[in-house]
Design a protein that fits this description.
- By secondary structure, the chain is α+β, with helices and mostly antiparallel strands.
- It has one domain (11-154): Aminopeptidase, CATH 3.40.630.30.
- The chain has helices spanning 20-30, 37-46, 88-102, 117-126; strands spanning 11-14, 49-55, 58-68, 71-79, 107-113, 129-139, 145-154.
- Strands 1-2-3-4-5-7-6 form a 7-stranded mixed sheet, with helices on both faces.
- Strand 6 (129-139) and strand 7 form a beta hairpin.
- It is globular and about 35 Å long.
- The chain starts with 10 loop residues before the first strand and ends with a strand.
Length: 157
């Protein structure tokens, strides 16, 4: 069972269209195969729960979750590399999970690269369990793909 716990040194607010340029700057810095600007705009357009994390007035990370029909799917969580390994990714994740819980979501799903041990450790710390494997899910070079673990977390009491 997931329990609520958020530290307060970050400000988390809904992502706005005008945030996308700063979000893209983080995305392209943090990922070798980043999302496009259009993907972020599409997420906002369809109404996904999208949040930015600010520290001292500077955008340092973001998270996006899709919520529908009693389920949620974490689509993206990212912290600027300069701010990583300080617990901010966990704060963003917990914020997304709290939003899902408020909307009476039963189960939250996500995919993670099998090589992303830092993220895997975080998800397991929160209580996610591996439930599957998606073969060749993520790009990993011009002609290569990387598998993804599928994780799930029950928010039911």
């Amino acid at each position: 069972m997931y329990t609520v716990s958020i530290m307060t040194d970050l400000t988390l607010r809904q992502m706005k269209t005008e945030d996308v340029a700063n979000v893209m700057a983080i995305e392209t810095t943090a990922y070798q195969f980043p999302w496009t600007q259009k993907i972020f705009h599409d997420c906002l357009k369809v109404g996904y729960e999208a949040y930015v994390a600010e520290k001292q007035g500077k955008l340092i990370g973001y998270g996006i979750i899709s919520i529908a029909a009693g389920e949620a799917h974490i689509l993206n969580i990212c912290v600027h590399p300069h701010w990583q390994k300080r617990g901010y990714g966990e704060q963003i994740l917990r914020h997304l999970l709290n939003k899902a819980k408020l909307k009476q979501v039963d189960t939250v799903f996500l995919e993670v690269r099998i090589s992303n041990q830092t993220a895997i450790d975080l998800y397991q710390k929160i209580g996610f369990n591996q439930i599957g494997l998606r073969y060749h899910y993520y790009p990993n070079g011009p002609h290569r793909r990387e598998h993804a673990f599928v994780f799930a977390l029950s928010l039911m009491e």
